[in-house]
């Protein structure tokens, strides 16, 4: 082989080696850059934290308890319609939402309690709304005694539930125990007061309702 052919062969090998090195060196970095770019484009946002539905439930319960305290104690007015809007729009909806939220995060006991008391506030709002016709039917005989008996019956049912829930909070923090005790006493005094027509017990249930609002807040 001549010197010219040997030089051409050496030159050819150098070109091949350089090309191979370039391909082997650039390909990983290029694909890495592409992966980083793709990862940056398609990277999802970090998931938001799970909110605590108890805050909504306690807030709704406290607001409604405050208004019911004003109504039952007679400090401002004793017209039940003053609590209808708050019962449906805040107490009923707020605690129903809190109940669903507690079920989602696996908190069964607060979910059941919030659902129970949302039912009370919805019941009160429906009974004392004009389209329901409850007031006209209960006072058709010219006396409010049937009306009081109906409300006493409803409060007695929720007093029983509240007592059972109170037993379920004996291992809970003291503030939860105090709250459930006040709820039970509020329904109990209100029910007895309207069953046997003792106005003082109805007023006492109003002041206990104020206590519920303070503790829940």
TrEMBL record:
Comp. bias regions, Polar residues: 28-40
Region Disordered: start-end pairs: 21-46
Single GO MF annotation: acetate transmembrane transporter activity
Originating species: Circinella minor
Main location: membrane
Pfam family membership, one: Gpr1_Fun34_YaaH
Keyword line: Membrane, Transmembrane, Transmembrane helix
Location in or out of the cell: Membrane
Segments traversing the membrane: 50-71, 83-106, 112-130, 150-168, 174-191
Protein name: Uncharacterized protein
Family to which the UniProt record says this protein belongs: Belongs to the acetate uptake transporter (AceTr) (TC 2.A.96) family.
InterPro entries: AceTr, Gpr1/Fun34/SatP-like
GO cellular component terms attached to this protein's record: plasma membrane
UniProt topology in membrane: Multi-pass membrane protein
């Amino acid at each position: 082989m001549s010197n010219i052919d040997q030089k051409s062969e050496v030159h050819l090998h150098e070109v091949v080696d350089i090309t191979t090195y370039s391909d082997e060196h650039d390909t990983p970095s290029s694909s890495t850059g592409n992966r980083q770019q793709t990862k940056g484009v398609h990277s999802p946002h970090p998931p938001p934290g799970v909110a605590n539905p108890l805050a909504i439930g306690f807030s709704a319960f406290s607001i409604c308890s405050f208004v019911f305290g004003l109504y039952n104690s007679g400090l401002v007015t004793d017209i039940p319609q003053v609590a209808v809007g708050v019962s449906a729009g805040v107490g009923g909806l707020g605690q129903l939402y809190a109940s669903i939220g507690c079920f989602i995060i696996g908190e069964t006991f607060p979910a059941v309690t919030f659902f129970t008391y949302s039912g009370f506030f919805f019941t009160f709002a429906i009974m004392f709304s004009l389209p329901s016709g409850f007031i006209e039917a209960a006072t058709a005989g010219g006396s409010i005694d049937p009306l009081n008996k109906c409300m006493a019956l409803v409060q007695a049912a929720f007093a029983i539930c509240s007592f059972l829930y109170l037993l379920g909070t004996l291992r809970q923090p003291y503030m939860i125990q105090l709250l459930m005790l006040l709820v039970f006493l509020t329904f109990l005094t209100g029910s007895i007061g309207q069953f046997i027509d003792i106005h003082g017990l109805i007023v006492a249930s109003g002041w206990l309702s104020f206590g519920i609002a303070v503790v829940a807040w």
